[in-house]
Amino acid sequence: MARYTGPKNRIARKFGCNIFGRSRNPLLHKQHPPGMHGARRKKSSDYGLQLAEKQKLVAAFGMISLSQLLKYYRNAVRLNESTPTALMRQLECRLDVFVYRSGFASTIFQAQQLVSHGHVQVNGKKLDIRSYQVKVGDAVSIRPKSQNLKIVTDAITQSSANETPEYMTVDHKGFKSTLECQPEVDNIPLPCPIKISSVCEFLAHTT
């Protein structure tokens, strides 16, 4: 799976929030959107607004591809529950996202790196598939040989003051976290407000 290597600060400025959760907020230096006319407000069509919400959602979950997002959306439509809720639960239960929420990485991109490089275990077995869906009861941990990695120790120190989402339990001393129940949309700590219904409308016209 390809890793996003594009301009992260420009994307954060475009949406007006520190959407990747970087320790150095890019908006502190430049608050306006990128481009010559970034400071001007532009009117958007309904399609443009839906597209912007989709782009925010994609960024919030580590710049996943449109094909991945469409796959999650099609799965959500088939489930016997609210489509926006089902979509968000699938995104939130990705292994890389779960590692990030656990505080074992400072950014979603660091979490992707940890998983891809084989530093993460699920129920005691190494797993390097970033899109793996963490299930209720699954125990996600950092491999013993990887627990002294600087990005892990720094992330745990940084996240010690942050609140843990109520659908998971985290043991930083044991480098372990567990999904206790399915996430509720209102409890998912998104970096900025995202209209999930608008994203679903966009995806419905894309399929």
Please specify the SSE layout and strand pairing.
Elements (H helix, E strand, L loop, with lengths): L7 H8 L30 H15 L5 H13 L4 H10 L2 H7 L6 H9 L3 E3 L2 E2 L12 E4 L7 H10 L8 E4 L4 E4 L16 H11 L1
Antiparallel strand pairs: 1-2, 1-3, 3-5, 4-5
Helix pairs in contact: 2-8, 3-4, 4-8, 5-6
Calculate Rg over CA atoms. 17 Å
The order of strands across the largest sheet is 2-1-3-5-4
Which descriptor suits the 3D outline?
globular
Mean pLDDT: 86
C-alpha end-to-end distance: 22 Å
Largest pleated sheet: 5 strands, antiparallel
The fraction of residues in strands falls at: 5-15%
SSE ordering: HHHHHHEEEHEEH
- Number of distinct beta strands: 5
What share of the residues lie within helices?
A: 40-55%
Q: What are the low-pLDDT stretches, counting only 5+ consecutive residues below 50?
A: none
Number of helices: 8
Q: Helices and strands: which structural class?
A: alpha+beta
